[in-house]
Amino acid sequence: MSLKELLKTNIPRAIFILFIFFAYAVGGTISTYLFKYAINDLTKGNWERFVLWMLIDFAFSIFTVLSLPLGTFLFNKQIQECVHSIRAQIMQRYYNSGDYKVSEMQNELGNNLKILTDDYATPWIEIWTNLLSLVFAIGTLITLHWSLILFVAVAAIIVLMLPKIMTKKLSNSTAAAAKKNAQLLNTIENWFSGLGELRRYSAGARLDRALGQDSRKLAAANIYRRKVQGISISINGLGNAIGQIGASLWSGLLFFAHVITLGDWFIAGSFASTIFNGLWSVISAMTQMRSTKKLRQEIAQLTEPLPERKKGTVAYGVECHNLTVQYQNGESITYPDFTINKGDKVLLSGDSGTGKSTLFKVLLGQLKPETGEVYFTAKDGTKILPQNAQLGYVAQDATLFPDTIANNITMFNRKLTSKLKEVIQRVQLVPDLAKFPKQIDTVVDLDQGNLSGGQRQKVVLARAEVHDEPFLLLDEATSAIDSNATSAIIGDLLDTDKTVLMIAHNFSPELKEKFDYQIHLQSNKKKGNSDDN
Protein backbone atom coordinates (compact mmCIF):
# COMPACT_ATOMS: atom_id res chain seq x y z
CA MET A 1 0.00 0.00 0.00
CA SER A 2 1.21 3.50 -0.85
CA LEU A 3 -0.23 7.02 -1.01
CA LYS A 4 -0.28 6.74 -4.80
CA GLU A 5 -2.42 3.59 -4.57
CA LEU A 6 -4.79 5.29 -2.14
CA LEU A 7 -5.31 8.29 -4.41
CA LYS A 8 -5.62 6.28 -7.61
CA THR A 9 -8.37 4.09 -6.13
CA ASN A 10 -10.87 6.85 -6.99
CA ILE A 11 -9.18 9.97 -8.40
CA PRO A 12 -12.25 12.29 -8.53
CA ARG A 13 -13.10 11.45 -4.92
CA ALA A 14 -9.45 11.91 -3.88
CA ILE A 15 -9.44 15.41 -5.39
CA PHE A 16 -12.67 16.26 -3.57
CA ILE A 17 -11.25 14.94 -0.28
CA LEU A 18 -8.16 17.10 -0.64
CA PHE A 19 -10.38 20.11 -1.38
CA ILE A 20 -12.45 19.43 1.77
CA PHE A 21 -9.32 19.19 3.92
CA PHE A 22 -8.00 22.41 2.31
CA ALA A 23 -11.29 24.16 3.10
CA TYR A 24 -11.14 22.79 6.66
CA ALA A 25 -7.66 24.29 7.18
CA VAL A 26 -8.66 27.63 5.64
CA GLY A 27 -11.82 27.81 7.75
CA GLY A 28 -9.93 26.99 10.95
CA THR A 29 -7.25 29.60 10.22
CA ILE A 30 -9.78 32.35 9.47
CA SER A 31 -11.77 31.45 12.59
CA THR A 32 -8.67 31.81 14.78
CA TYR A 33 -7.45 34.97 13.04
CA LEU A 34 -10.81 36.79 13.39
CA PHE A 35 -10.66 36.21 17.13
CA LYS A 36 -7.87 38.81 17.17
CA TYR A 37 -10.35 41.55 16.27
CA ALA A 38 -12.86 40.30 18.81
CA ILE A 39 -10.23 40.47 21.60
CA ASN A 40 -9.07 43.97 20.55
CA ASP A 41 -12.65 45.30 20.44
CA LEU A 42 -13.34 43.68 23.81
CA THR A 43 -10.37 45.51 25.38
CA LYS A 44 -11.70 48.75 23.85
CA GLY A 45 -15.16 48.15 25.30
CA ASN A 46 -16.81 47.95 21.87
CA TRP A 47 -19.47 45.34 22.67
CA GLU A 48 -21.37 45.47 19.36
CA ARG A 49 -18.29 44.81 17.23
CA PHE A 50 -17.13 42.14 19.65
CA VAL A 51 -20.46 40.27 19.25
CA LEU A 52 -20.29 40.69 15.45
CA TRP A 53 -16.80 39.16 15.29
CA MET A 54 -17.90 36.33 17.56
CA LEU A 55 -20.88 35.52 15.28
CA ILE A 56 -18.65 35.47 12.18
CA ASP A 57 -16.15 33.34 14.04
CA PHE A 58 -18.97 30.97 15.06
CA ALA A 59 -20.04 30.55 11.41
CA PHE A 60 -16.50 29.58 10.34
CA SER A 61 -16.24 27.23 13.32
CA ILE A 62 -19.45 25.44 12.29
CA PHE A 63 -18.09 25.05 8.74
CA THR A 64 -14.85 23.63 10.13
CA VAL A 65 -16.65 21.22 12.45
CA LEU A 66 -18.79 19.86 9.60
CA SER A 67 -16.09 19.61 6.91
CA LEU A 68 -13.64 17.41 8.84
CA PRO A 69 -16.07 14.49 9.49
CA LEU A 70 -17.15 14.60 5.83
CA GLY A 71 -13.56 14.45 4.58
CA THR A 72 -12.73 11.71 7.08
CA PHE A 73 -15.75 9.62 6.02
CA LEU A 74 -14.89 9.89 2.33
CA PHE A 75 -11.23 9.10 2.93
CA ASN A 76 -12.11 6.02 5.00
CA LYS A 77 -14.27 4.90 2.08
CA GLN A 78 -11.26 5.43 -0.18
CA ILE A 79 -9.10 3.36 2.17
CA GLN A 80 -11.54 0.44 2.26
CA GLU A 81 -11.77 0.33 -1.54
CA CYS A 82 -7.97 0.34 -1.76
CA VAL A 83 -7.69 -2.45 0.83
CA HIS A 84 -10.31 -4.43 -1.08
CA SER A 85 -8.22 -4.07 -4.24
CA ILE A 86 -5.04 -5.17 -2.45
CA ARG A 87 -6.83 -8.12 -0.86
CA ALA A 88 -8.05 -9.20 -4.31
CA GLN A 89 -4.48 -9.02 -5.69
CA ILE A 90 -3.13 -11.09 -2.79
CA MET A 91 -5.92 -13.64 -3.20
CA GLN A 92 -5.07 -13.92 -6.89
CA ARG A 93 -1.46 -14.62 -5.98
CA TYR A 94 -2.52 -17.31 -3.52
CA TYR A 95 -4.73 -18.80 -6.21
CA ASN A 96 -1.85 -18.97 -8.69
CA SER A 97 0.65 -20.33 -6.17
CA GLY A 98 0.46 -23.34 -3.89
CA ASP A 99 3.30 -22.32 -1.57
CA TYR A 100 1.25 -20.76 1.25
CA LYS A 101 -0.44 -22.21 4.32
CA VAL A 102 -3.97 -21.28 5.33
CA SER A 103 -2.72 -19.59 8.52
CA GLU A 104 -0.35 -17.40 6.47
CA MET A 105 -3.21 -16.38 4.19
CA GLN A 106 -5.43 -15.54 7.17
CA ASN A 107 -2.70 -13.42 8.73
CA GLU A 108 -2.02 -11.45 5.53
CA LEU A 109 -5.66 -10.98 4.49
CA GLY A 110 -6.86 -10.15 8.01
CA ASN A 111 -4.38 -8.96 10.61
CA ASN A 112 -1.70 -7.43 8.38
CA LEU A 113 -4.14 -5.50 6.18
CA LYS A 114 -5.83 -4.19 9.33
CA ILE A 115 -2.45 -2.99 10.64
CA LEU A 116 -1.84 -1.21 7.35
CA THR A 117 -5.28 0.38 7.51
CA ASP A 118 -4.86 1.59 11.10
CA ASP A 119 -1.16 2.45 11.12
CA TYR A 120 -0.51 3.59 7.54
CA ALA A 121 -3.63 4.63 5.63
CA THR A 122 -5.71 6.31 8.35
CA PRO A 123 -2.83 8.52 9.65
CA TRP A 124 -2.81 10.33 6.28
CA ILE A 125 -5.90 12.20 7.53
CA GLU A 126 -3.84 13.59 10.42
CA ILE A 127 -0.97 14.46 8.11
CA TRP A 128 -3.04 16.31 5.50
CA THR A 129 -5.26 18.27 7.87
CA ASN A 130 -2.43 19.26 10.20
CA LEU A 131 0.08 20.12 7.46
CA LEU A 132 -2.42 22.46 5.78
CA SER A 133 -3.35 24.09 9.09
CA LEU A 134 0.34 24.36 9.95
CA VAL A 135 1.19 26.11 6.65
CA PHE A 136 -1.61 28.67 7.08
CA ALA A 137 -0.61 29.25 10.72
CA ILE A 138 3.00 29.95 9.70
CA GLY A 139 1.81 32.40 7.03
CA THR A 140 -0.31 34.21 9.62
CA LEU A 141 2.53 34.46 12.16
CA ILE A 142 4.70 36.15 9.55
CA THR A 143 2.13 38.96 9.31
CA LEU A 144 2.34 39.52 13.08
CA HIS A 145 6.13 39.75 13.55
CA TRP A 146 9.14 38.19 11.80
CA SER A 147 10.78 37.08 15.06
CA LEU A 148 7.84 34.81 15.88
CA ILE A 149 8.32 32.70 12.78
CA LEU A 150 12.09 32.59 13.38
CA PHE A 151 11.55 31.22 16.89
CA VAL A 152 9.00 28.70 15.65
CA ALA A 153 11.32 27.56 12.85
CA VAL A 154 14.20 26.80 15.25
CA ALA A 155 11.91 24.97 17.67
CA ALA A 156 10.28 23.05 14.80
CA ILE A 157 13.63 21.75 13.55
CA ILE A 158 14.35 20.34 17.02
CA VAL A 159 10.90 18.75 17.20
CA LEU A 160 11.33 17.17 13.75
CA MET A 161 14.59 15.51 14.79
CA LEU A 162 13.06 13.70 17.77
CA PRO A 163 11.12 10.92 15.93
CA LYS A 164 14.28 9.44 14.41
CA ILE A 165 15.19 8.13 17.84
CA MET A 166 12.46 5.47 17.79
CA THR A 167 11.84 4.79 14.07
CA LYS A 168 13.84 1.53 13.83
CA LYS A 169 12.44 0.11 17.06
CA LEU A 170 8.89 0.90 15.93
CA SER A 171 9.36 -0.87 12.59
CA ASN A 172 10.89 -3.94 14.23
CA SER A 173 8.19 -4.12 16.90
CA THR A 174 5.39 -4.00 14.30
CA ALA A 175 7.02 -6.71 12.17
CA ALA A 176 7.56 -8.87 15.27
CA ALA A 177 3.89 -8.55 16.29
CA ALA A 178 2.76 -9.57 12.78
CA LYS A 179 5.07 -12.60 12.91
CA LYS A 180 3.75 -13.71 16.31
CA ASN A 181 0.19 -13.38 15.02
CA ALA A 182 1.06 -15.64 12.08
CA GLN A 183 2.55 -18.20 14.46
CA LEU A 184 -0.63 -18.21 16.56
CA LEU A 185 -2.82 -18.71 13.48
CA ASN A 186 -0.58 -21.57 12.37
CA THR A 187 -0.88 -23.21 15.78
CA ILE A 188 -4.67 -22.82 15.71
CA GLU A 189 -4.79 -24.41 12.25
CA ASN A 190 -2.56 -27.34 13.26
CA TRP A 191 -4.29 -28.15 16.55
CA PHE A 192 -7.93 -27.38 15.77
CA SER A 193 -7.83 -29.59 12.68
CA GLY A 194 -7.65 -32.49 15.14
CA LEU A 195 -10.05 -31.09 17.72
CA GLY A 196 -12.27 -34.16 17.58
CA GLU A 197 -9.39 -36.44 18.47
CA LEU A 198 -8.32 -34.22 21.36
CA ARG A 199 -11.85 -34.37 22.76
CA ARG A 200 -12.04 -38.12 22.27
CA TYR A 201 -8.92 -38.66 24.37
CA SER A 202 -9.56 -35.79 26.82
CA ALA A 203 -6.36 -34.04 25.78
CA GLY A 204 -7.67 -30.51 26.10
CA ALA A 205 -4.86 -29.55 28.48
CA ARG A 206 -2.30 -30.01 25.71
CA LEU A 207 -4.37 -27.78 23.44
CA ASP A 208 -4.46 -25.10 26.14
CA ARG A 209 -0.67 -25.26 26.52
CA ALA A 210 -0.03 -25.06 22.78
CA LEU A 211 -2.37 -22.11 22.24
CA GLY A 212 -1.41 -20.47 25.52
CA GLN A 213 2.28 -20.34 24.64
CA ASP A 214 1.76 -18.63 21.28
CA SER A 215 -1.03 -16.44 22.62
CA ARG A 216 1.24 -15.14 25.39
CA LYS A 217 4.01 -14.49 22.87
CA LEU A 218 1.60 -12.48 20.70
CA ALA A 219 0.34 -10.53 23.71
CA ALA A 220 3.92 -9.75 24.76
CA ALA A 221 4.79 -8.61 21.21
CA ASN A 222 1.73 -6.32 21.08
CA ILE A 223 2.48 -4.92 24.54
CA TYR A 224 6.06 -4.17 23.52
CA ARG A 225 4.83 -2.57 20.28
CA ARG A 226 2.45 -0.30 22.17
CA LYS A 227 5.20 0.47 24.70
CA VAL A 228 7.56 1.60 21.95
CA GLN A 229 4.77 3.66 20.38
CA GLY A 230 4.03 5.23 23.78
CA ILE A 231 7.68 6.18 24.36
CA SER A 232 7.84 7.69 20.88
CA ILE A 233 4.67 9.71 21.47
CA SER A 234 6.01 10.93 24.83
CA ILE A 235 9.27 12.12 23.25
CA ASN A 236 7.36 13.94 20.51
CA GLY A 237 4.94 15.42 23.04
CA LEU A 238 7.79 16.79 25.17
CA GLY A 239 9.21 18.68 22.19
CA ASN A 240 5.74 19.95 21.33
CA ALA A 241 5.10 21.28 24.84
CA ILE A 242 8.46 23.09 24.99
CA GLY A 243 7.78 24.71 21.60
CA GLN A 244 4.30 25.95 22.57
CA ILE A 245 5.35 27.40 25.92
CA GLY A 246 8.39 29.07 24.35
CA ALA A 247 6.29 30.67 21.58
CA SER A 248 3.76 32.00 24.10
CA LEU A 249 6.55 33.50 26.25
CA TRP A 250 8.21 35.14 23.25
CA SER A 251 4.96 36.66 21.95
CA GLY A 252 4.27 37.85 25.52
CA LEU A 253 7.60 39.74 25.52
CA LEU A 254 6.63 41.35 22.21
CA PHE A 255 3.29 42.43 23.71
CA PHE A 256 4.93 44.03 26.77
CA ALA A 257 7.36 45.76 24.43
CA HIS A 258 4.28 47.21 22.64
CA VAL A 259 5.31 45.52 19.37
CA ILE A 260 2.04 43.55 19.04
CA THR A 261 -1.50 43.97 20.44
CA LEU A 262 -3.24 41.78 23.01
CA GLY A 263 -5.27 40.21 20.20
CA ASP A 264 -2.03 39.51 18.32
CA TRP A 265 -0.58 37.86 21.43
CA PHE A 266 -3.68 35.70 21.83
CA ILE A 267 -3.76 34.44 18.23
CA ALA A 268 0.06 34.12 18.18
CA GLY A 269 -0.27 31.65 21.02
CA SER A 270 -3.13 29.90 19.23
CA PHE A 271 -1.23 29.64 15.95
CA ALA A 272 1.93 28.52 17.74
CA SER A 273 -0.19 25.85 19.39
CA THR A 274 -1.58 24.91 15.95
CA ILE A 275 1.93 24.66 14.55
CA PHE A 276 3.43 22.56 17.32
CA ASN A 277 0.31 20.44 17.81
CA GLY A 278 0.26 19.98 14.04
CA LEU A 279 3.92 19.02 14.01
CA TRP A 280 3.35 16.60 16.86
CA SER A 281 0.38 15.02 15.10
CA VAL A 282 2.25 14.82 11.79
CA ILE A 283 5.34 13.35 13.42
CA SER A 284 3.29 10.85 15.41
CA ALA A 285 1.42 9.83 12.27
CA MET A 286 4.64 9.53 10.25
CA THR A 287 6.29 7.55 13.03
CA GLN A 288 3.28 5.25 13.08
CA MET A 289 3.46 4.92 9.30
CA ARG A 290 7.21 4.19 9.34
CA SER A 291 6.54 1.32 11.72
CA THR A 292 4.74 -0.44 8.84
CA LYS A 293 7.69 -0.25 6.43
CA LYS A 294 8.57 -3.95 6.55
CA LEU A 295 4.93 -4.91 6.44
CA ARG A 296 4.31 -2.72 3.37
CA GLN A 297 7.29 -4.31 1.63
CA GLU A 298 5.86 -7.74 2.39
CA ILE A 299 2.42 -6.75 1.09
CA ALA A 300 3.99 -5.19 -2.02
CA GLN A 301 5.68 -8.50 -2.82
CA LEU A 302 2.39 -10.34 -2.42
CA THR A 303 0.62 -7.97 -4.80
CA GLU A 304 3.15 -8.53 -7.57
CA PRO A 305 1.30 -10.59 -10.16
CA LEU A 306 2.29 -14.18 -10.85
CA PRO A 307 1.74 -15.82 -14.23
CA GLU A 308 -1.74 -17.29 -14.37
CA ARG A 309 -1.98 -21.01 -13.85
CA LYS A 310 -1.97 -22.65 -17.24
CA LYS A 311 -4.26 -25.57 -17.77
CA GLY A 312 -2.22 -28.75 -18.00
CA THR A 313 -2.04 -31.22 -20.84
CA VAL A 314 -4.76 -33.87 -20.68
CA ALA A 315 -3.34 -37.16 -19.39
CA TYR A 316 -4.44 -40.61 -20.57
CA GLY A 317 -1.80 -42.93 -19.08
CA VAL A 318 1.11 -42.93 -16.64
CA GLU A 319 4.48 -44.63 -16.22
CA CYS A 320 6.65 -45.06 -13.13
CA HIS A 321 10.27 -46.26 -13.20
CA ASN A 322 12.77 -46.77 -10.35
CA LEU A 323 10.72 -44.51 -8.09
CA THR A 324 11.93 -43.79 -4.52
CA VAL A 325 10.39 -41.27 -2.16
CA GLN A 326 12.16 -40.00 0.95
CA TYR A 327 10.32 -38.55 3.95
CA GLN A 328 11.53 -35.70 6.11
CA ASN A 329 12.49 -38.09 8.91
CA GLY A 330 14.90 -39.87 6.60
CA GLU A 331 12.70 -42.87 5.86
CA SER A 332 12.31 -43.90 2.23
CA ILE A 333 10.08 -46.17 0.21
CA THR A 334 10.70 -47.75 -3.19
CA TYR A 335 7.86 -48.39 -5.63
CA PRO A 336 7.64 -51.09 -8.29
CA ASP A 337 7.78 -50.05 -11.91
CA PHE A 338 4.39 -49.90 -13.61
CA THR A 339 2.73 -48.64 -16.76
CA ILE A 340 -0.96 -47.73 -16.93
CA ASN A 341 -2.24 -47.33 -20.45
CA LYS A 342 -5.20 -45.37 -21.76
CA GLY A 343 -8.48 -46.91 -20.58
CA ASP A 344 -6.93 -49.24 -17.95
CA LYS A 345 -8.89 -49.74 -14.73
CA VAL A 346 -6.36 -50.32 -11.95
CA LEU A 347 -6.85 -50.98 -8.23
CA LEU A 348 -3.97 -49.79 -6.03
CA SER A 349 -3.87 -51.98 -2.95
CA GLY A 350 -1.57 -52.71 -0.04
CA ASP A 351 -1.47 -52.64 3.73
CA SER A 352 -1.50 -49.42 5.67
CA GLY A 353 1.92 -47.76 5.55
CA THR A 354 2.94 -49.08 2.12
CA GLY A 355 2.80 -45.61 0.53
CA LYS A 356 -0.41 -45.56 -1.51
CA SER A 357 -1.40 -41.98 -0.64
CA THR A 358 2.25 -40.90 -0.98
CA LEU A 359 2.27 -42.27 -4.51
CA PHE A 360 -0.81 -40.18 -5.30
CA LYS A 361 0.99 -37.08 -3.98
CA VAL A 362 3.83 -37.81 -6.42
CA LEU A 363 1.38 -38.29 -9.28
CA LEU A 364 -0.36 -35.02 -8.41
CA GLY A 365 2.95 -33.14 -8.40
CA GLN A 366 2.68 -32.35 -4.68
CA LEU A 367 5.75 -34.38 -3.76
CA LYS A 368 9.02 -34.76 -5.65
CA PRO A 369 10.61 -38.22 -5.72
CA GLU A 370 14.12 -38.75 -4.44
CA THR A 371 15.03 -40.92 -7.45
CA GLY A 372 13.37 -42.36 -10.50
CA GLU A 373 10.98 -41.07 -13.11
CA VAL A 374 7.23 -40.52 -13.17
CA TYR A 375 5.40 -39.10 -16.15
CA PHE A 376 1.95 -39.13 -17.66
CA THR A 377 1.30 -39.72 -21.32
CA ALA A 378 -0.85 -37.63 -23.63
CA LYS A 379 -3.21 -39.08 -26.23
CA ASP A 380 -0.37 -39.08 -28.78
CA GLY A 381 2.08 -40.63 -26.30
CA THR A 382 3.89 -37.38 -25.42
CA LYS A 383 5.40 -37.34 -21.93
CA ILE A 384 3.82 -34.99 -19.38
CA LEU A 385 5.40 -34.09 -16.03
CA PRO A 386 3.06 -34.55 -13.03
CA GLN A 387 2.84 -30.81 -12.33
CA ASN A 388 1.76 -30.20 -15.94
CA ALA A 389 -0.79 -33.01 -16.19
CA GLN A 390 -4.52 -32.36 -16.32
CA LEU A 391 -6.43 -35.17 -14.62
CA GLY A 392 -9.32 -35.78 -12.26
CA TYR A 393 -8.74 -36.42 -8.57
CA VAL A 394 -11.17 -37.41 -5.83
CA ALA A 395 -9.80 -37.41 -2.29
CA GLN A 396 -11.18 -39.37 0.65
CA ASP A 397 -11.99 -36.14 2.47
CA ALA A 398 -14.44 -34.36 0.20
CA THR A 399 -13.83 -30.63 -0.24
CA LEU A 400 -17.10 -28.72 -0.53
CA PHE A 401 -17.97 -25.03 -0.57
CA PRO A 402 -20.83 -23.07 1.08
CA ASP A 403 -22.88 -22.95 -2.12
CA THR A 404 -25.54 -25.09 -3.78
CA ILE A 405 -24.97 -28.78 -4.42
CA ALA A 406 -25.31 -28.02 -8.13
CA ASN A 407 -22.51 -25.44 -8.03
CA ASN A 408 -20.36 -27.78 -5.95
CA ILE A 409 -20.69 -30.36 -8.73
CA THR A 410 -20.17 -28.03 -11.71
CA MET A 411 -17.63 -25.92 -9.81
CA PHE A 412 -19.52 -22.80 -10.92
CA ASN A 413 -19.29 -23.65 -14.64
CA ARG A 414 -22.80 -23.00 -15.98
CA LYS A 415 -21.98 -24.76 -19.25
CA LEU A 416 -22.03 -28.07 -17.35
CA THR A 417 -25.52 -27.61 -15.88
CA SER A 418 -27.12 -29.67 -18.65
CA LYS A 419 -25.08 -32.72 -17.56
CA LEU A 420 -26.19 -32.65 -13.92
CA LYS A 421 -29.18 -34.95 -14.30
CA GLU A 422 -27.05 -37.70 -15.82
CA VAL A 423 -24.13 -37.54 -13.38
CA ILE A 424 -26.23 -37.49 -10.19
CA GLN A 425 -27.84 -40.70 -11.37
CA ARG A 426 -24.48 -42.31 -12.10
CA VAL A 427 -23.17 -41.58 -8.59
CA GLN A 428 -26.42 -42.70 -6.86
CA LEU A 429 -27.13 -39.19 -5.56
CA VAL A 430 -30.78 -39.00 -6.65
CA PRO A 431 -32.24 -40.70 -3.50
CA ASP A 432 -30.17 -38.41 -1.29
CA LEU A 433 -31.32 -35.25 -3.06
CA ALA A 434 -34.95 -36.33 -2.66
CA LYS A 435 -34.54 -35.83 1.12
CA PHE A 436 -33.92 -32.10 0.67
CA PRO A 437 -36.78 -29.68 -0.16
CA LYS A 438 -34.60 -27.78 -2.63
CA GLN A 439 -32.89 -30.95 -3.85
CA ILE A 440 -29.88 -30.05 -6.04
CA ASP A 441 -30.27 -26.36 -5.19
CA THR A 442 -29.77 -27.10 -1.49
CA VAL A 443 -26.98 -24.94 -0.04
CA VAL A 444 -24.19 -26.92 1.61
CA ASP A 445 -23.93 -25.86 5.25
CA LEU A 446 -20.33 -26.47 6.29
CA ASP A 447 -21.02 -25.40 9.87
CA GLN A 448 -24.11 -27.52 10.53
CA GLY A 449 -23.04 -30.38 8.26
CA ASN A 450 -26.34 -30.93 6.44
CA LEU A 451 -24.67 -33.55 4.18
CA SER A 452 -23.45 -36.89 5.47
CA GLY A 453 -19.97 -38.20 4.69
CA GLY A 454 -21.33 -40.49 1.99
CA GLN A 455 -23.39 -37.69 0.43
CA ARG A 456 -20.35 -35.44 0.37
CA GLN A 457 -18.34 -38.13 -1.41
CA LYS A 458 -21.10 -38.60 -3.97
CA VAL A 459 -21.08 -34.86 -4.70
CA VAL A 460 -17.32 -34.91 -5.31
CA LEU A 461 -17.61 -38.04 -7.45
CA ALA A 462 -20.29 -36.26 -9.49
CA ARG A 463 -17.88 -33.34 -9.81
CA ALA A 464 -15.25 -35.63 -11.31
CA GLU A 465 -17.84 -37.21 -13.61
CA VAL A 466 -19.28 -33.95 -14.92
CA HIS A 467 -15.84 -32.54 -15.75
CA ASP A 468 -15.15 -35.71 -17.72
CA GLU A 469 -11.37 -36.00 -17.31
CA PRO A 470 -9.95 -39.00 -19.24
CA PHE A 471 -7.73 -39.99 -16.27
CA LEU A 472 -9.11 -40.32 -12.73
CA LEU A 473 -7.24 -40.77 -9.44
CA LEU A 474 -9.58 -41.99 -6.67
CA ASP A 475 -8.28 -42.10 -3.10
CA GLU A 476 -10.76 -44.04 -0.95
CA ALA A 477 -13.43 -42.06 -2.80
CA THR A 478 -16.30 -44.32 -1.65
CA SER A 479 -15.17 -45.12 1.90
CA ALA A 480 -18.24 -43.45 3.45
CA ILE A 481 -20.75 -44.79 0.90
CA ASP A 482 -22.72 -47.99 1.55
CA SER A 483 -21.64 -51.16 -0.24
CA ASN A 484 -24.59 -51.38 -2.65
CA ALA A 485 -24.19 -47.80 -3.85
CA THR A 486 -20.41 -48.25 -4.02
CA SER A 487 -20.79 -51.32 -6.22
CA ALA A 488 -23.15 -49.46 -8.56
CA ILE A 489 -20.94 -46.34 -8.74
CA ILE A 490 -17.70 -48.25 -9.33
CA GLY A 491 -19.36 -50.62 -11.77
CA ASP A 492 -20.69 -47.71 -13.81
CA LEU A 493 -17.32 -45.94 -13.70
CA LEU A 494 -15.42 -49.01 -14.85
CA ASP A 495 -17.75 -49.35 -17.86
CA THR A 496 -16.47 -46.04 -19.26
CA ASP A 497 -13.38 -45.54 -21.43
CA LYS A 498 -11.64 -43.51 -18.69
CA THR A 499 -8.27 -44.47 -17.24
CA VAL A 500 -8.84 -45.17 -13.54
CA LEU A 501 -6.34 -45.64 -10.72
CA MET A 502 -8.13 -46.21 -7.41
CA ILE A 503 -7.09 -46.76 -3.80
CA ALA A 504 -9.66 -48.76 -1.88
CA HIS A 505 -9.98 -51.03 1.15
CA ASN A 506 -12.46 -53.80 1.82
CA PHE A 507 -13.76 -54.20 -1.71
CA SER A 508 -15.59 -57.48 -2.28
CA PRO A 509 -13.87 -60.07 -4.50
CA GLU A 510 -16.60 -59.51 -7.09
CA LEU A 511 -15.90 -55.78 -7.20
CA LYS A 512 -12.13 -56.28 -7.35
CA GLU A 513 -12.56 -58.56 -10.35
CA LYS A 514 -14.14 -55.70 -12.31
CA PHE A 515 -10.75 -53.96 -12.43
CA ASP A 516 -8.32 -54.90 -15.20
CA TYR A 517 -5.56 -55.56 -12.68
CA GLN A 518 -4.12 -54.58 -9.29
CA ILE A 519 -0.88 -52.89 -8.29
CA HIS A 520 -0.19 -54.32 -4.87
CA LEU A 521 2.29 -52.39 -2.73
CA GLN A 522 4.31 -54.08 -0.04
CA SER A 523 6.13 -52.41 2.83
CA ASN A 524 9.82 -51.90 2.03
CA LYS A 525 10.52 -48.78 4.05
CA LYS A 526 13.93 -48.12 5.47
CA LYS A 527 14.56 -46.48 8.88
CA GLY A 528 11.28 -47.11 10.60
CA ASN A 529 7.59 -46.71 9.90
CA SER A 530 5.23 -44.02 8.69
CA ASP A 531 1.55 -43.30 9.15
CA ASP A 532 1.04 -42.95 5.42
CA ASN A 533 -1.63 -45.14 3.88
Automatic annotation (TrEMBL):
Q: Which InterPro entries match?
A: AAA+_ATPase, ABC1_TM_dom, ABC1_TM_sf, ABC_transporter-like_ATP-bd, P-loop_NTPase, Sigma_54_int_dom_ATP-bd_1, Type_1_exporter
What compartments host this protein? Cell membrane
Give a single Pfam family match.
ABC_membrane
What Gene Ontology cellular-component terms does the record carry? Answer: plasma membrane
Q: Which organism is it from?
A: Lactobacillus helsingborgensis
* Chain ranges of the ABC transmembrane type-1 domain: 15-291
Name of the protein this chain belongs to: ABC transporter ATP-binding protein/permease
Per UniProt, which keywords does this protein have? Answer: ATP-binding, Membrane, Nucleotide-binding, Transmembrane, Transmembrane helix
What membrane topology is annotated for this entry?
Answer: Multi-pass membrane protein
* Domain ABC transporter stretches: 318-533
- Transmembrane region(s): 15-38, 50-70, 134-162, 235-259, 265-286
> Which Gene Ontology molecular-function terms are recorded?
ABC-type transporter activity; ATP binding; ATP hydrolysis activity; ATPase-coupled lipid transmembrane transporter activity
Q: Which SUPFAM superfamilies match?
A: ABC transporter transmembrane region, P-loop containing nucleoside triphosphate hydrolases
